[in-house]
Amino acid sequence: MSDVVEKTLTALPALLSLDSQPGKLSSGSKLGNLIRGITELTSKHRQMKELMVRAIYCEMLGYEASFSYIHAIKLAQQGTALDKRVGYLAVSLFLHESHELLLLLVNTVLKDLQSTNLIEVCMALTVVGQIFPKDMIPAILPLVEEKLNHPKEIIRRKAVLALYKFYLIAPNQVQHIHNKFRKALCDKDPGVMSASLHIYLEMVTEKPEGYKDLALSFVTILKQVVGGKLPIDFNYHSVPAPWLQIQLLRILSLLGKNDRSTSEIMYEVLDESLRRAEMNHNITYGLKALTYVVQQDANLALQHQMTIIECLDHSDLIIKRETLELLFRITNGQNVKVIVEKLLDFLRLSKDDYVTIDLGGK
Predict the structure, then answer these.
(1) Residue 33 to residues 23, 27, 40, 79: CA-CA distances in angstroms?
(2) Residues contacting residue 120 through CB under 8 Å, at least 6 positions apart
(3) Which of 48, 66, 227, 284 has a beta carbon 3.0–4.6 Å from 238's, enabling a disulfide?
(4) Do 127 and 88 meet the contact criterion of CB atoms below 8 Å apart?
């Protein structure tokens, strides 16, 4: 895909030869010749794929490329996985939910959702989560529901996002699967769990009294997030999953509004969240500052070596990870024995598989 884009960008100066009328392409331009190739159905899949990327770029620039819409659907219906990927991408960018051509894609989506190819299932769920005819939701809903139990977390996550889209455009059609939303909230994969929060934020906003019983579940999730229990990929500048925290706080604020008993469940985690935010900000800022200093001169941080090592005993996993990274950077021939001994002691007690693998690799 990147090679195709690179070739397209290189060819653009000669490609977009324009008429005097704004927004129209010259029939004598190189793209004009390629358009005729498409409409005459003489292009092979490889040529069609490259043309589709160019058509996408033209639409992004504001020029109409409606001649390619039907061929984007055809590309999604046949060819290799890469061809289908480009076709699905073009369709999601070209068409809107009420576009008449989108009906031609329904059977393809149904077929791909039943495919044993993980990539095809992902592509179909992505399109369903972006654009799909409201009237066709009943035909596809059982297949999307089924994907909530898929062994691959990426499929479960995309299925939840597709159901979130259905809830936004046709909430009555997904009322019967609210229990499955609860299952997604308790999913072992944090990505699936965080995707389900989109749905719950909408539902709690509309009817908070119907979800009071989930207040303790949201509090438990927030405790895990604040405690740094999620994978490090969710962190942003050493802050554990900030966007997830914000979403959980919004939900809790709705559940606790004018309800003292429900609010009391949240006090402890809210206090902990504020305390950690203030404390971690100061410690993490210091570790970050030392990390930047080390990049210029590692010797400048050596005088703080024992203070840095003491941070390994901190209860916050985020601070521990920052400390490990800094210790790795300041290790030299003089202190290697002391630091390695401390790191080995840390690994013996660590239950974080990510830290163990990362540190072992270093």
Answers:
(1) 17, 7, 11, 23
(2) 81, 84, 112
(3) 284
(4) yes
Nearest to 165 by CA among 144, 179, 194: 144
Task: Check the CA dihedral 267-268-271-272 and report its sign.
Answer: negative
198-249 confidence digits (pLDDT tens): 999 999 999 999 999 999 999 999 999 988 888 888 887 777 888 999 899 9
The amino acid sitting at 221 is I
H or E, element range at 316: none
The answer to whether 166 and 173 are in contact (CB under 8 A) is: yes
Can you read off the two tokens belonging to residue 159? Answer: 């299925």
The pTM of this model reads 0.69
CB 256 within 8 A of CB 218: no
111: its two tokens: 């077929």
> What tens digit of pLDDT does each residue of 68-79 get?
899 899 999 887
Pull the structure tokens for residue 265.
């469940």
Contact 195, 184 (CB under 8 A): yes
Q: How far is CA 173 from the centre of its chain?
A: 25
CB-based contacts of 121, cutoff 8 Å, min separation 6: 112, 113, 115, 147, 150, 155
Residue 181 half-sphere exposure, CB side, CA atoms within 13 Å? 23
Dihedrals phi, psi of 128, to nearest 5 degrees? -60, -35
Spatial separation of the C-alpha atoms in residues 56 and 86, rounded to whole Å:
10
- Look up residue 265 and give its amino acid: I
